[in-house]
Design a protein that fits this description.
Length: about 100
C-alpha cells in the first residue's frame, strides 16, 4: 500500500456499511451489496478511508443481526470529529 500521506481521502458515510452488510434480498439491494463489496475489496486500500463519530452513532442505532459487522467495517477508518468535517470538505477539489 502507498504512503498514507499521499493517498486521497474517501469519506465513508452510513450507507456504505449498510450496503456492504444488507439484510435485504431484493435485486437492487443485492446489486448495491455486490458493488460495495467489490469496491471495498479492489479499491479501498488505495485511499485513506475516513468517517466520523456521527456515522458510528447512526450505525449503533441500527437493528438486525448485521449491526456489529457494519460497525466493524469502519474499525480501521480514521474518525474525524464532526467539527472537522466542514474543513475537510472545504479542502476537497470541487468538480469543474
Amino acid at each position: 500500500m502507498g504512503s498514507r500521506i499521499m493517498q486521497k481521502r474517501v469519506y465513508i458515510e452510513t450507507t456504505i456499511p449498510s450496503f456492504y452488510y444488507t439484510s435485504s434480498a431484493d435485486t437492487e439491494s443485492i446489486a448495491r451489496m455486490n458493488w460495495t463489496r467489490q469496491w471495498w475489496q479492489e479499491y479501498a486500500s488505495q485511499f485513506r478511508l475516513v468517517s466520523s463519530p456521527v456515522v458510528i452513532a447512526e450505525l449503533r442505532r441500527g437493528t438486525g443481526e448485521k449491526k456489529e459487522s457494519r460497525i466493524a467495517l469502519l474499525k480501521d477508518n480514521e474518525l474525524y470529529p464532526s467539527r472537522n468535517l466542514v474543513g475537510m470538505w472545504a479542502r476537497c477539489p470541487q468538480p469543474g
